[in-house]
Write a structure and sequence with these properties.
Helix content: under 10%
Shape: globular
Largest sheet: 13 strands, parallel
Number of helices: 1
Distance between the termini: 48 Å
Structural class: mainly beta
Oligomer: single chain
Number of domains: 1
Length: about 220
């Protein structure tokens, strides 16, 4: 038989609700069912057992990513970090690996338009926060399949073809409070450049259970 789906609005995160569902059949046999459902909580800001790792250059950033362990908070000082970077490790549910800038607008990862990913995440339970990712094909790519519970918040992606991308079988990402700025500039429309950027994506997610919210343009962005 056909399946039905709908949305419930104005709910608080991490809260259990009684939900009443009514199916109306014009031929008779209406049915009402009450169930309990719990909304997802906003991911915690810090690991349960944080270990701060301060970095201030492209080389120390990649070294920190190579040595990352659950609970690490890799903290980037203000500056421009040139290159493409990869994290292969995974955190845990209580101790994610956090990659966090001291300030979104002054901590810049610059891919130099080399045609790849400015930041590639291979595992799960990783938080990327308060960074600007600019000048490459893709700002942030989640490669691990399956991967789960990765977080991107307060990140500015600019001058990229793809902002944030994922792979099949990934679950429960949280992508919120970000700023996305592509290569097609208002008032251009896609045909102005022969459709070169007609298929650019801000956020492309596959799998299920993902939360995408509060995505802004530069004009409406706040820290």
């Amino acid at each position: 038989m056909p399946e039905f789906a709908g949305s419930i609005f104005d709910l608080a995160p991490g809260t259990t609700y009684d939900v009443e569902l009514t199916a109306h059949d014009p031929d008779g046999g209406d049915q009402t069912t009450t169930i309990q459902a719990t909304t997802r909580a906003v991911p915690a800001a810090d690991p349960a057992s944080p270990h701060v790792v301060n970095v201030s250059s492209a080389s120390t950033l990649q070294s920190a990513l190579d040595a990352a362990q659950p609970g690490d908070v890799i903290t980037l000082a203000a500056g421009t970090y040139a290159g493409e970077f990869t994290l292969n490790a995974s955190g845990t549910a209580s101790n994610p690996i956090v990659i966090r800038g001291v300030d979104r607008d002054t901590v810049i990862l610059d891919g130099g338009n080399t045609g790849g990913n400015i930041l590639a995440i291979e595992g799960s339970f990783t938080h990327v926060e308060k960074l600007t990712l600019q000048h490459d094909n893709r700002a942030l790519r989640f490669h691990g399949s399956p991967a789960q519970d990765n977080v991107v918040r307060r990140v500015h992606a600019k001058d990229v073809v793809l902002g944030f991308g994922s792979n099949p079988l990934q679950q429960d990402f949280y992508l919120c409070d970000n700023v996305l700025e592509g290569r097609l500039k208002w008032p251009q429309v896609y045909s102005d450049d022969g459709g070169l950027h007609a298929n650019d994506d801000g956020i492309h997610v596959e799998g299920d259970g993902h939360v995408v919210c509060h995505t802004n343009s530069p004009a409406s962005a706040t820290r």
